[in-house]
Write a structure and sequence with these properties.
Strand content: 15-25%
Largest sheet: 6 strands, parallel
Oligomer: single chain
CATH superfamily of the largest domain: Tandem AAA-ATPase domain
CATH class of the largest domain: Alpha Beta
Strand order of the largest sheet: 3-2-4-5-1-8
Number of helices: 18
Structural class: alpha/beta
Number of strands: 14
Number of domains: 2
Length: 428
């Protein structure tokens, strides 16, 4: 396989380390680098744990690019913690590759406990205890706040979270107190920002390797962003929930959106916003299809399944879709059809089901009809078109009803993305 120089550097970085975090921008070929690293390390048995939506993609990539004489067992997070757990723990693995490693951000999640063990201590109960080398792949190592780095550092780089005074690893709360800004919300402490970013970034040195597209792929076409204002009833969105969102944004930023979402307090407005945009967005796509050459293709993302169904109902003659209810082979067929079938011009995807691990470079334009309230999920989804193999400049549009609460939300998401960059990329 022909690797870019930075990809070979990444493969060598992984191959030479017992534990490592490869955090390249989405679209820079982390899967390929991990496969090549297995070749370089001369391994025999490889375990890959990844989201269910990309299990088949991993199998295809290994079959296509593997040069060494090694075998691989690819499984999903759910199966690694469930049906396949006994089989995995009964064996020894030269390498464990964990794709989309930000799925392990929660210390108490079942999948985190299965892979990193209780308290991320990497004890005998952890899948990582059965592997000689462990490589984590993710383009978004901390989707929301620095606390989400704790599990990786505790399990795979414990010296970086060990107290010089006591010689014991920090607890999660000790880590959070050191690197997160906290605010009492009336019920308990809530993370609202980050601090000591440079110090935390330095602790990742030698463990995390991260390259940005602008740094390593000078020839990749640029990625541009634009707002798309749709005609809709903005007044219909001015509910009590809209005011609640504005108050949360003013006090907590985008973290307030996540809190409200988890509490279920704004679910009705969020769904209503998508519903209001669905029909005018479908009309806009029809116009786009008529006004562009027949070889041009478009990717459309939304959050709610009923919004996706509305879009698909209006566009199905030209479209395929992927949502969380579909089986893996059905999702892959939709991806393949967009990439290879000239009659398919629109891909409609649910952000959480189709926003990672797939390549949609047959399209160079993307429309978010609805947005995630996690900035990293938005970035990941946008990178489905801005990847290796793309030959056209890429344009990402954000659909919004002019004058609605949507505009406030987008500004908050942008501010959060800047905060994330301070830690992950060392941006001052």
């Amino acid at each position: 396989m022909n690797l870019f120089p930075y990809q070979l550097d990444g493969a060598q970085f992984l191959a030479g380390r017992e534990t490592a975090l490869l955090a390249d921008d989405p679209g820079l070929g982390k899967t390929l680098q991990a496969i090549r690293a297995c070749d370089l390390a001369r391994v025999l048995k490889v375990l890959v744990v990844c989201p269910a939506s990309v299990v088949e993609n991993w199998r295809r990539e290994i079959t296509k690019f593997r040069e060494g004489d090694w075998i691989a067992f690819v499984t999903s997070y759910d199966k690694a913690a469930g049906a396949d757990n006994r089989r995995i723990m009964a064996d020894r693995w030269d390498v464990l590759i964990v794709d989309e490693g930000h799925y392990l951000k929660s210390l108490t999640a079942k999948r985190t406990k299965a892979i990193y063990g209780a308290n991320a201590a990497r004890g005998a109960d952890a899948l990582t205890s059965r592997a000689a080398q462990v490589w984590i792949l993710t383009g978004t190592p901390m989707p929301n706040d620095p606390g989400e780095l704790y599990t990786h550092m505790r399990a795979l780089r414990p010296a970086s979270v060990t107290s010089e005074r006591t010689g014991l690893p920090w607890t999660y709360m000790q880590f959070v107190n050191a690197y997160c800004v906290l605010k009492h919300n009336g019920f308990g402490q809530q993370i609202i920002g980050s601090k000591n970013e440079a110090k935390l970034h330095a602790k990742l040195d030698g463990f995390m390797l991260r390259r940005r597209k602008a740094d390593v792929l000078k020839d990749l076409p640029p990625l541009r962003f634009a707002e798309l204002y749709l005609e809709g009833d903005a007044a219909a969105l001015e509910t009590a929930e809209a005011e609640e969102i504005r108050q949360a944004l003013a006090a907590e930023g985008v973290d307030g959106l996540r809190r409200l979402s988890y509490d279920g307090g704004v679910a009705k407005l969020r769904r209503l916003t998508g519903t209001v945009k669905a029909l005018p967005a479908a009309a806009w796509v029809k116009d786009w299809l008529e006004n562009n050459p027949p070889e041009k293709k478009l990717v459309v993302f939304a959050h709610h399944k009923d919004v996706i169904e509305t879009l698909y109902d209006k566009l199905h003659v030209h479209a395929v879709r992927v949502d969380g209810s579909m089986k893996q082979h059905e999702r892959q067929r939709s991806v393949d059809r967009l990439q290879n079938d000239p009659l398919v011009r629109v891909f409609i995807g649910q952000i959480t089901a189709a926003g990672i691990g797939i390549t949609l470079t047959a399209a160079s334009e993307l429309l978010f009809v609805e947005s995630s309230w996690v900035p990293a999920e938005m970035e990941q989804a946008a990178q489905r078109i801005h990847r290796i193999g793309q030959t056209e400049p890429c344009l990402v549009r954000f659909a919004t009803i002019a004058g609605s609460i949507d505009e406030d939300i987008q500004r908050a998401v942008a501010r959060k993305m800047e905060s994330i960059a301070k830690v992950v990329d060392g941006v001052s």
